[in-house]
Records
---
Amino acid sequence: MSNIAALACALPKAELHLHIEGTLEPELAFRLAERHGVKLAWPNVEALRAAYDFSDLQSFLDLYYAGASVLLTETDFYDLTWAYLEHAHADNLRHVEIFFDPQTHTERGVAFGDVIGGIRRAMLQAEREWGISFRIIMSFLRHLSEADALATLEEAKPFLHRIDGIGLDSSEMGHPPSKFTRVFALCRELGLPVVAHAGEEGPPAYIEEALDILQVTRIDHGVRAIESEALMARLAQEQTPLTVCPLSNVKLKVYQDMREHKLREMLARGLKVTINSDDPAYFGGYVNDNFVACVGALGLTAQEVVKLARNSIEASWLDSARRDVLLAEIDDVYRDWRGE
Ligand code: ADE
Ligand code: ZN
């Protein structure tokens, strides 16, 4: 591993774009299927992993929703989240803000409280054992109707004290942010910060809708912003964080090769870019794998890697006291790396 990749791995970081359902590794999927006597459509782990060959976002989502069918109990959600947190700890993540998709589970009859209960139990344990702080973001599925999202918000009401923010994910094309105007306004009235996937496959206009209509505090992905000079200038001016997911973008063919990724150019243009893993079990790696891939393919410098780590803390929903602690830790690791 290059020196700079080693620095990237060692730096304290936050992850701000992670779907907990996307951390389901094939081994755990088969273990859970066996636990519940559920039959998966693949004969074994190797066959399932071999199916991770996607042509676009939708081809991935079809598999991702099929995989989630083995998640049935509070313990399943605990086991899933704990397995992710072991990777987070190994990657020197100090803070994570994770999405969960309640509609994927409640539609199958799983209790809302079991989903969020299992996730939170693992998070609290990681906070106690490793000092990893966390936020939990409830995401609406944009291929479903706004009425469905409104019903989900109602269902979430008894758990709102456990929910730190709202997101929007799933199939982007044909489902613009404006489809969710009313439900996002209600969420903001409840005091919840909101984010949305935009500009992953969708055009720059979807990013503008997320900013202007949904009033998001961050854009998830946002890589297609590069196609609009006016939007690039605005994002730089407003320092809106973008939670970019490089391995995801290559796996879902947003770019054919990591060397084509615009992350470095976006950084150079003054955008507040962060690096995240999205659905690491499906896309070939966790946060450090994403950093290593970008260092290798894009030739990121040590300063750029440090900037990305700092951005992840600054773009988080942490209070300023903990942010300052984590930023100071980043400075310490960078100083040690330089041999000072
Ligand atoms: N759900 C899980 N991963 C996603 C992604 N990359 N884009 C949209 N929805 C998702
Ligand atoms: Zn995502």
---
Amino acid sequence: MDKIKIVGGNQLRGKVYISGAKNTALPIICATLLSDEPSTIRNLPILSDIKSLNLLLEQIGTKIEGKQEELNGHTTQTFSYHTPKPESLVAPYDYVRKMRASYYVLGPLLTKYGHVELSLPGGCAIGARPMDIHLSSLEQMGAEIEIKNGYVMADVNGRLHGANITFHSASVGATCNILMAAALAEGVTVIENAAKEPEIADLISMLNEMGAKIEGANTSTLTITGVEKLHGVTHEIINDRIEAGSYAVAAAITHGCLELINANAEHLQSPIDILRKVGVKVEIRPNSIVVDARNCELNGVDIYTDYYPGFPTDLQAQFMALMCVANGASMVTENIWENRFMHIPELMRMGANINVHGHASAIVRGVKKLSAAPVMSTDLRASFSLVLAGLVAEGETTVNRVYHLDRGYEALEEKFKAVGANIERIKESDE
Ligand code: EPZ
């Protein structure tokens, strides 16, 4: 397994190009299954999660063609997807266990073909990650669902029908799955307490471009009037707010200055508010955000993760790394996932002063210096927080299990190197 080696102490300066959003790309790729016609998706990030999902779609029978394309100043991927007739309606365990977002084939395949077999993803490092909302909503729309040998076996006789559905949690995944299912259902579906993340609005705009009738984007009530057929489209996905937020912290923690090209400040209101409270200057430009922490004191601030537009759980670990070297104490509360503090013991091995209270709150008392150590983590965002700690730690930090980072951060070492970090990938074969 590859490792990342970082020698801490460099101030980061320059431009970072923000890539297409992973968590938008995944449902949007699956939405192409809703039409017999080909669709082209632009601005896809070059990530292992996209590769994994493409393999699953190929197994279903999708013809995929890809090319690299210069878009908005940097190299991106464009793929076209065409599924005129699926060869399989099964999402096998081997695919789903590698990437749980494989469950986004559930809504499209069921609504279009009346049958799907999806391996249940089970829990992961950050929590139990249930699918009850996805399944009970589909049942309300007329699906018959059985769990057998670890698989969801879902069937519908004819078309799914519209329903009035209220989610008990504003789940991103369930909102995407039910939007896609309802787009081809008979009649009107209303989702109450839907997720409002920007990724949902992007999926809605793609579905509406395909001919769907969805109202209520950016609100918690979505109304979907089912249509009989959707057509192919060309869609460019939004940029990754979590990647942008992660590099914003890199600027802050190294007392540097980074211009985050293609970052959308509208999607980052809450993290920007927190950075400003910390004492960092954030300038919003038409096509970028400049995060300037040169000559400024970093002050501890409390963070409380919440559904959008609240502070994103996917930036909690990165901001905690920042609080580790900020003045005073910060309280970090994780409200979305029940086990998303796995980075804490590793940060503490680097000298951070953190006390965990229960499973949801941690008090971080800022220290003057972190010291380098070999560290590892169990999920994507936690791994990035260890890279951040490594950027300011004294000495050489090695972050193990780089495959987590490769799932969600495109060209991480290249982007960091270009702005002055002393960072290097050690390939397994080099050891
Ligand atoms: C998405 O996961 C993201 N993943 C996650 O990002 C992100 O942390 C999460 O949304 C919250 O923003 C992708 O988009 C691929 P949820 P998802 O369903 O959709 C509860 C990353 O690092 N819930 O919104 O799986 C659940 O337990 C990843 O990029 C149910 O109770 O999350 C949680 O408390 C990690 N029953 C809350 O809802 C359900 O059926 C939100 O989960 C579904 C969810």
